[in-house]
Write a structure and sequence with these properties.
The complex is a heterodimer of chains A (147) and B (157).
Chain A (H helix, E strand, L loop, with lengths): L5 H22 L5 H6 L9 H20 L20 H19 L4 H10 L3 H21 L3
Helix pairs in contact in A: 5-6
Chain B lengths: L6 H21 L4 H8 L12 H21 L20 H17 L3 H6 L8 H21 L1 H8 L1
The chains are: A mainly alpha (147), B mainly alpha (157).
Chain lengths: 147, 157
């Protein structure tokens, strides 16, 4: 359990909730990253605020890492493909990205849109989506043995 | 000028984005290995499981829950004419299938779209290929959806 960090996790989670609250009460928008990202593509309509949000998301992460390097949440690489996978990490990561992009588009949301905002709205769709993607992700980790 | 191009609206987007990024870093969820250590339930018996992700989700949902309640007492947000409520309300097959496909992608790498973007702050090895793939997958999904969009709206609204 030496990796368990409940206090930074809860502080970070509160900030993520605060961000979603500001975007909702300020602009009436759901802070769902797959939606904000995915709707940059044609036929995109409101592009500017999405780009501003995403740029500041990157900036916020950068500044936080600069000010709080001791938290050590700065990975130098992504996790390698499991050893049994002959295609190598590049192919593994590409597959992971395609499935995530496709799935969040078809399912209208990801961990932030369904997970944070949808559950907070008590949306039935989000409760179903969150249950499905958590269970499938846990099974995927178990089956692939990636950790 | 459109409301969405005015300074207060864009300032809200900037502040919300920055706080989201700070939250992702402090929570540790920007690190895919930490996310995978939550998803790895096989580690529970040995005591190596990392439940941190649950400690991120719960306060995030609680804070947003309060904001949703505050929002319901108002007719509109501060800087737009109405709240953009999601247009689908019923559980349908694309929702379940999409969530399942996303679950596979998430479990393969420990990366979901929020951390994928915030990782651009560090630009770790393999991130460019992930982001390109995310874009391609998302575009692929949007090519499929419009064809049945009206039908799907009628079913899922």
């Amino acid at each position: 359990m030496d990796t368990f960090t409940p206090i930074p996790a809860a502080i970070g989670g509160t900030l993520i909730g605060l961000s979603a609250a500001i975007l909702w009460l300020g602009n009436g928008r759901i802070a769902g990253i797959s939606g904000i990202f995915g709707q940059l593509l044609p036929p995109a309509q409101t592009v500017v605020w999405r780009l501003v949000f995403l740029a500041f998301l990157v900036g916020g992460t950068f500044v936080a890492a600069y000010l709080l390097p001791g938290l050590g949440n700065r990975p130098a690489t992504l996790v390698d493909a499991p050893k049994w996978f002959a295609g190598g990490t590049t192919v593994w990561i590409a597959l992971s990205g395609v499935l995530t992009g496709f799935g969040t588009k078809i399912g209208n949301g990801c961990t932030s849109g369904h997970g944070v905002c949808g559950l907070a709205r008590l949306s039935r769709r989000s409760i179903v989506a969150v249950s499905v993607f958590f269970v499938v992700a846990i099974l995927t980790v178990t089956v692939t043995g990636i950790v | 000028m459109s409301k969405t191009l005015q300074l207060p609206y864009l300032a809200v987007a900037a502040i919300a984005g920055a706080i989201f990024g700070i939250g992702l870093y402090i929570s540790g969820m920007v690190n895919p290995l930490k996310v995978l250590r939550f998803l790895d339930f096989t580690a529970i018996p040995a005591g190596g499981w990392d439940p941190s992700l649950a400690f991120v989700m719960i306060p995030a949902v609680v804070v947003m829950f309060i904001a949703v309640r505050i929002g319901r007492a108002r007719t509109k947000p501060a800087f737009d004419a109405s709240f953009h409520e999601p247009e689908f309300t019923k559980v349908d097959a694309p929702l379940v299938a999409g969530a399942a496909v996303f679950g596979i992608g998430w479990g393969m790498s420990g990366i979901c779209p929020g951390p994928a973007i915030s990782l651009m702050a560090f630009w770790p090895q393999y991130l460019p290929i992930y982001l390109l793939a995310l874009f391609v997958g998302s575009y692929g999904g949007s090519v499929i959806i419009p064809s049945g969009r009206q039908k799907r709206l009628a079913l899922a609204r």
